[in-house]
Amino acid sequence: MMRRLWQGLLVSVLVTASSMAAAADNHITVAAAADLHQALDDVVAAYRHDHPDSRIEVVYGSSGNLSTQIEQGAPFDLFFSADSSYPQQLVEHGKASGTPVPYALGHLVMWSASIDMKGVQVADLAQARFGRIAIANPQHAPYGKRAEQALRAAGVWDKVQSRLVFGDNIAQTAQFAQSGNAQVGLVAESLVLGSSVKGSFEPVPSSLYEPLRQSFVITQRGANNTLAQDFARYVQTAPAKAILSRYGFNLPEDAAH
After folding, report:
1. Does the pLDDT at position 24 exceed 70?
2. Which domain holds residue 54?
3. 140: Cβ–Cβ under 8 A, 6 or more apart, which residues?
4. What's the CA gap between 117 and 160, in Å, rounded?
5. How many angstroms separate the Cα of 48 from the Cα of each of 43, 173, 235, 242, 243?
6. What are residue 248's phi and psi, to 5 degrees?
7. What is the pLDDT of residues 204-229, one digit of tens each?
8. Phi, psi (5° rounding) for residue 140?
9. How many domains is the chain built from?
10. Could you give the maximum distance between any two Cα atoms of the chain, in Å?
């Protein structure tokens, strides 16, 4: 009698463990740079159309902050960064599996909801008529770092510093410009193309800032997760790349076809 009871309990434990493993393989949490907000949402939706049982949660933020969280043990299975240096750093610190995979090249633009930006040069932002200027925090947001580089290269950093408004990430920075809390925002082109708010934008010449080479990596937590591996492969397919291209991202030549 006791033996049968133990056998029953063992079977129950094994079934529960198997169910938990299957559930874990069917769910991932992704950390992603804020410039991907609309684009990656669309990629996830397209993936789930063919894999309806999969659960993919995405947490958006600045690449620097997300990288720090992963270093400290945050439960992310994949990390999509706006700057390739952060995934590479995770690999070097033993916090990620494999090597970073390039997936896009981002672009910085000057955007305004109230001012016609067509033909505006970065140096023109020194003029008082452009009011407050929003950029992401250069300390941990790649687009913020590039915005500072562009303003310095144009020779106007010192002239505009008193009018700068800093967003914690590039999505918050775009919100500042969209809401009127800032008259101009130096933001990701992807967020402008995905915005429902009408406005005007002008590209920031790429010669004024370091390239925004964006890469993703599977973290140590996601190394053995089947869904993490499969979604990583999907991001490199033609349908996913077409979505990223629609949001203004250039695609790396060495990405898988």
Report:
1. no
2. 27-106+213-246
3. 62, 63, 64, 65, 68
4. 17
5. 9, 29, 12, 16, 14
6. 90, 0
7. 999 999 999 999 999 999 999 999 99
8. -140, 0
9. 2
10. 88
